[in-house]
Amino acid sequence: MSAAVLSGKELSEAIRAETASEAAELAAAGIPPRLAVVIATADESSAWYVRSIARAAEKAGIVCDLVDLGPDAAAGTIRETLAELSGDPVVHGVILQTPLPGGAALEDLASAIAFEKDVDGASPLSLGRLAAGLPAFAPATAEAVVALLDHHAIELSGRHAAVVGRSTVVGKPAAHLLLDRNATVTVCHSRTADLAAVTSAADIVVAAVGRAGLITAEHVRPGAVVVDVGTNPTAEGGLVGDVDAGSVRGRAGALTPVPGGVGPVTTALLLRHTVRAAARTGGAAARVGREGSG
Ligand SMILES: NC(=O)C1=CN([C@@H]2O[C@H](COP(=O)(O)OP(=O)(O)OC[C@H]3O[C@@H](n4cnc5c(N)ncnc54)[C@H](OP(=O)(O)O)[C@@H]3O)[C@@H](O)[C@H]2O)C=CC1
Ligand SMILES: Nc1nc(=O)c2c([nH]1)NC[C@@H]1CN(c3ccc(C(=O)N[C@@H](CCC(=O)O)C(=O)O)cc3)C=[N+]21
């Protein structure tokens, strides 16, 4: 048996096409959607993401500003930059890349991102609302995990999902989204005593750790669905996941590839969020305009 390949290509292309047409409408209405990417890291997987965002934004007709503060930026500088972008009326979306310098916490700095511009759902307000089941942008990666499973018609309700990783960017929000879909969720992390025992009891394993090849066949129950979120740079200049695809492929029922799985869907959803954020400010401006002239 060889696991089915859960590609993100078709889904990401569909989201990008829809996003491009919404962006064109907004631009025609005088509201060109604009995303600011704040970078304070030399991390190679972040660099992959930033390149992917910039390329996809250009194709979708979204203006993308890369604000690179350097890997030694002080937390105060990052915070001020986020506050400034939040106050800039031509910017509709703001994302702060992780990891952050000097152990700064994303959830602390991201509180400087205005709620309506928090297109990667990183601020405590967005995350709190997500956990409470209230409307907010979900972190694009966590949303991509569920969107990719939905796209491939994988049932979530009543199934046991093990999420490996508990970051604010992926693990925790992915657990909330899966819970919202009536999965029974276990969250694992670096102190989990027997990782293989937990993950091999699950129907769905989501790996979001950042360690190449951590998840091997012994972590996976025969026929389980495995979602590989990891994007680990290789010495050859490529990307590999957290899943040892060579061994897991022969045991899992389905597996997302890296590259070409969760990554492209993440990028597409971030751009969709940006366009939706722009549409909302546009709607508000139009209302103000009507009220002003009426
Ligand atoms: N494809 C995509 O769209 C995206 C990919 N990524 C990639 O996903 C990966 C994870 O990213 P991110 O969540 O930001 O990373 P973080 O470093 O913030 O979090 C990693 C998590 O993995 C846990 N962990 C570390 N070692 C182990 C272990 N041996 N066993 C079990 N758990 C472990 C950590 O536990 P603890 O909390 O105890 O330290 C932590 O919760 C990275 O490769 C990143 O590049 C990220 C976002 C989007
Ligand atoms: N606040 C924050 N949110 C993140 O979501 C976040 C982050 N910080 N820091 C870095 C990691 C890493 N990450 C990736 C997303 C997509 C690809 C991606 O699109 N990869 C393509 C390959 C690259 C390409 O060909 O475009 C693929 O998997 O097919 C890679 C990496 C998001 N991250």
Automatic annotation (TrEMBL):
Species the sequence originates in: Planobispora longispora
Pathway listed for it is: One-carbon metabolism; tetrahydrofolate interconversion
Provide this UniProt record's keywords sorted from A to Z: Amino-acid biosynthesis, Histidine biosynthesis, Hydrolase, Methionine biosynthesis, Multifunctional enzyme, NADP, One-carbon metabolism, Oxidoreductase, Purine biosynthesis
Q: What is its EC number?
A: 1.5.1.5, 3.5.4.9
Its name, as the record gives it, is Bifunctional protein FolD
UniProt family annotation: Belongs to the tetrahydrofolate dehydrogenase/cyclohydrolase family.
Q: Which reaction does it catalyse?
A: (6R)-5,10-methylene-5,6,7,8-tetrahydrofolate + NADP(+) = (6R)-5,10-methenyltetrahydrofolate + NADPH; (6R)-5,10-methenyltetrahydrofolate + H2O = (6R)-10-formyltetrahydrofolate + H(+)
Q: GO MF annotations for this entry? A: methenyltetrahydrofolate cyclohydrolase activity; methylenetetrahydrofolate dehydrogenase (NADP+) activity
What positions does the entry give for NADP(+) binding?
Answer: G165, R166, S167, T231
GO cellular component terms, alphabetically, are:
cytosol
Instruction: Describe the protein's quaternary organization and the partners it interacts with.
Output: Homodimer.
Q: What does this protein do?
A: Catalyzes the oxidation of 5,10-methylenetetrahydrofolate to 5,10-methenyltetrahydrofolate and then the hydrolysis of 5,10-methenyltetrahydrofolate to 10-formyltetrahydrofolate.
